[in-house]
Amino acid sequence: MTDTAQEPMLAADGRPLKQSLARALRRQKTRALLMIAPLLLFVMLTFVIPILSMLMRSVENAIVPDTLPGTVAALSAWDASSGRAPDEVVYRHLFIDLFKAAEAKEHTKLGTRLNYEQTGQSSLFRTSGRKLDDLAEPYQDAIEDISPDFKEAAFWYELMSGEDGSALLAQRRDLWNALVGEELSGEAGFMPSAQIAQLLPWTARAYTDFALWSALVKNDTVAEERPWEAVYAALAMDLEDPAKRQAIADYDGAGAAQLQALAAAQSDLPAVRLREGFIELNRSWGEPRIWTTIKLYSPRYTPGYFLNAVDMQLSPDGAEAKPENQQIYTQLFKRTLIMALIITGSCILLGYPVAWILANLPARTANVLMILVLLPFWTSLLVRTSAWKVLLQQQGVINEILVWLGFVDDANRLVLMNNATGTVIAMTHILLPFMILPLYSVMKTIPPSYLRAAKSLGATNWTAFRRVYFPQSVPGIGAGSILVFILAIGYYITPEIVGGTSGVFISNRIAYHISSSLNWGLAAALGTILLVVVLALYWLYDRIVGIDNVKLGG
Amino acid sequence: MKLIKTLSATAMLVATGGLAIADHHMTSDMTLVSWGGAYQASQVAAYAEPYKLMNEGVTITWDESSNEAVAKLRAMNEAGNVTWDVVDVVAADALRLCDEGLALEIDPDEDLAAAPDGTSAEEDFGDLLVGDCFIPQIVYSTTFGYRTDMVPEGVEPPNDICDVFDLEKYPGMRALEKRPINNVEWALLCDGVAKEDVYDVLGTEEGQEQALAKLDTIRDSVIWWSAGADTPQLLADGEVFMGSTYNGRLFSAIVEQKQPIGMMWDAQVFDLDGWIIPAGLSEERLARAKDFILYATDTQRLADQAKYISYGPARASSAPLVSTHAELGIEMAPHMPTDPENSKNTFLYNYEFWADYRDDIDAKFQAWLAQ
Question: So what's the ipTM on this one?
């Protein structure tokens, strides 16, 4: 005995048995993993990842800081409760950001995004984007009048080029990448001068933006392209600062003479008043409201979509309820839950007796009847729903028969569809097989002898059913209910066709936001909430009934 | 053996011949997206078939996804795999696709054919060139049809938009679209707002409430539709007395299916439908798409489409060429929404307004519906 305890037991190949067993087990596990690997990969690629990325949209808000990076930064100093629009400097950043965005045709996307939060932004951004050139033209004309060299692409290139500007170049490049949503590849063919960047910061940024866009997107040679109008406006901004004019006097790099001439004649340039310019383009730019919206939605991630999904909205003082005439989602969630419960209940009521009959008939007859249960499965969902339309409408089959039998007056035909009743009737029918099948397979396993034993011991039919048969069929009810309820809660086509206005579900609104309003963020938030509600109910079910008590068969 | 040789030689000849004709700079297959049904059939007959005859070896695949074109194009674009070449959308969707950078901007004078008399495309299409990406094709209208046999005795058939709101004179159900667009305009018109003030009023909270309050007066008698085919079906089944839908749908119910339905053209809302070219196509596919567009939107082609469906061609120069129905032989002009007799009182879909207010008013409208 002591020998065996000290000497490890050996397997046939001479290795210790423990090691050998572990190896076999490992190999088995690997094989099992390899066998499910294709399915796992498939599910990950087609199900988990798309769902996660869709859910990310419910909080993602990068479009605002990516399109208006400078404006968002400048706006952080603005006090939304001041009751007045921000100062000139914010408008200057807005001009530079918006000009870039308009060149890349990204400004309308931002308008669409912000329009979900505040009506009117869509056209505000679209029309303003078109007229930005007009805002800059006076400065361009004046600068070119003072020094005609500024008309020349080559002069600009020489003026702005230099050494040590790689930090600025990299920074502006990152901003472009963020704006267009992809990595722009290629060489800029331009290196900003660090000296100029310090001397004329606005101009250097605007020119670098222009140079990157020309080289990387338009595939032009920077030195041969005249800069954007925005660059002239930026130069006018820089020249307004007396300190910079002072510094220009000491500057001796390329284009020094022209710059100094410009600085000397600065008083001939029109004063940079972009705040007034924007307000002239559209009065809305002067209202604090729009700036509040931009500021509220400037972080990369926002709770805004989720708040909208529960009939609330972001405000400077935190979350607040939406006006009553715009509240709809909480009501729809409640309605969806209640109707899914009603449908599940009516499926139990209708399905239980059918399953019982099927389980207790001789196999041959049961199989024939089973086909009748399965038949709807083999018919298209759309066809079944449309068939219900024919049956349920006011001039439809059911009403005609009732009128003919004299149960219903011709003038007061029953309204059976385009309301909640229609949805409940049609969906109960469509989901019934999902209740009958698990019930049937569970009932099949209940030995008939139990009932007979109960009766022979003196139980009445009712007692035998209640105390012996029913408890054994509960796992089937559980399985059927979970299936039907979860399917019902996400149903879309049937409520859309027969639900009218009072019988539509939350999924109909989700579909609307996916395919019509294109507010995918809100759709994602609604979908996430729906998913969480289902999971919570599942958890609750597990706590109360126990998920071990659910049987799909055997 | 000899037979097989001859056959394969012929096949080779056909194949090489086809290649010789097909332009090497264009792909030979393209996917067009449209609405299905009678409308798509009219496009197949008027544009696609003749185009294929002219360009041997070109195959055209149709996809009936125009209804969700904006969402699908956005998804395709994000996935970096746009499979559509030319897409038929309503003007409002074209505007949104343009805003989202999903549609290609076009230059009317370069990408579209001039009229036969030399009028430039830009002038020929005129105001219908909405936005920078939209290539107009037809003018359609949303208007009302009513059951002629359900008009109460001794009352003349409805001929005024406000008859829709008059339940006493014209009892019975109405079918209206399940969205605010058009419905709120009609409601305001019938609540005493002058036609030119409608959008000013709708831009205010009070105006929106006023419109919904007017709709409230008929709310219990309305079935809300979401697909254009619903109203003709509801009318044919006698489920509703009157209902709004696209005029072409009513035309086919009345003329082709001989249903007892009458047209009520008052305050019909004009809207446009046309093509866009998705952004992000390869050079060869783009060349083919542009070639097709150039052909399919010329004066004669647009007039040809009107042989199959009662929508007005978008070019001024096509109007005089509109003739008779291809199968029924009836004059098409009196069935066109643009016919002077039908267009005494019309509205034009206000694209700018609805681009801004769509989400806001829709939220209020849906909340009102759910009450």
Answer: 0.85
